[in-house]
TrEMBL record:
Listed GO biological process terms: methylation
Transmembrane helix as UniProt keyword: no
Domain Methyltransferase type: from-to ranges: 40-131
Pfam families referenced in this protein's UniProt entry, alphabetically: Methyltransf_11 (PF08241)
Record InterPro entries: Methyltransf_11 (IPR013216), SAM-dependent_MTases_sf (IPR029063)
UniProt GO molecular function: methyltransferase activity
Protein known as: Methyltransferase domain-containing protein
Keywords assigned: Methyltransferase, Transferase
SUPFAM superfamilies documented for this protein: S-adenosyl-L-methionine-dependent methyltransferases (SSF53335)
């Protein structure tokens, strides 16, 4: 399967990707974040969610990502962020450093998430929380416009996404207790195909050029008739390190 070079696509991500509706607020509320909290986002990319958390709470916010270009784009946020280059499975922070560690649309990039969960467990304070935001099979199959106009993305995504129950089991194996699962969703009117024509979504780089062009042509044709009702969904899986 084709892999995605995030250094190459950082500009498109910074231009088009936005935080999931309600996710920043959900992270803050569920974790009870305050100005004294220390928060780590793993695979932060352009750090949209981390910046939102920091600006809303004043917490100390650290972001880690393997892509230098993604971190360069993340540095444009007005939020106070500490940005470090690194990989999820190689986290190397002192024990009991963070109140919350979270990742968004990242865990499917790890063939084996176990080493990441073990390192996150070590870096969390007792009672600290881990949030893994990912997509379930149902979310993948019901994405609009992606699954509707680019159906080849469904198999491509199912091949790389871990089932949510398997993630929960892997977290428990690392010492966490699974305590909550919530799907956040929002709907909006899509009025142009710019973000899709520029492949601002990584899975569009994983399908054939023919499948991509056919989907883009159909999407543009329908948009000429009027806006398309689209959706954004994410599953937030919460686990806690025992106090």
């Amino acid at each position: 399967m084709t892999t995605v070079d995030y250094d190459q696509h950082a500009a498109e991500y910074a231009r088009h990707r936005r935080p999931y509706s309600g996710l920043v607020e959900h992270l803050i509320e569920y974790a009870g974040l305050t100005s004294s909290s220390r928060v780590l986002e793993v695979g932060c990319g352009t750090a949209n969610h981390l910046a939102g958390v920091q600006q809303e709470t004043g917490s100390r916010a650290v972001g880690v990502d393997p892509s230098a270009e993604m971190l360069h784009a993340a540095a444009d946020h007005p939020a106070e962020l500490e940005l470090l280059r690194g990989r999820a499975e190689e986290l190397d922070f002192p024990e009991e450093s963070f109140d919350l560690i979270f990742s968004i649309d990242v865990i499917h990039h790890l063939p084996d998430p176990g080493p990441y969960f073990s390192r996150a467990f070590r870096a969390l304070k007792p009672g600290g929380l881990l949030c893994t935001a990912t997509d379930s099979e149902w979310i993948i199959r019901n994405r609009v416009p992606v699954a509707r106009y680019f159906p080849a993305t469904v198999d491509a995504e199912l091949a790389r996404y871990h089932p949510v129950p398997a993630l929960a089991a892997s977290q428990r194996a690392a010492g966490f207790s699974t305590e909550h699962e919530r799907v956040l969703e929002s709907f909006y009117e899509l009025t142009d195909a710019a973000s899709y024509s520029q492949k601002a979504f990584s899975v569009l780089h994983l399908i054939s050029e023919q499948d991509f062009e056919e989907g883009l042509t159909a999407l543009r044709a329908d948009l000429e008739k009027g806006p398309i009702e689209a959706n954004m969904r994410i599953c937030a899986l919460w686990s806690r390190k025992p106090a």
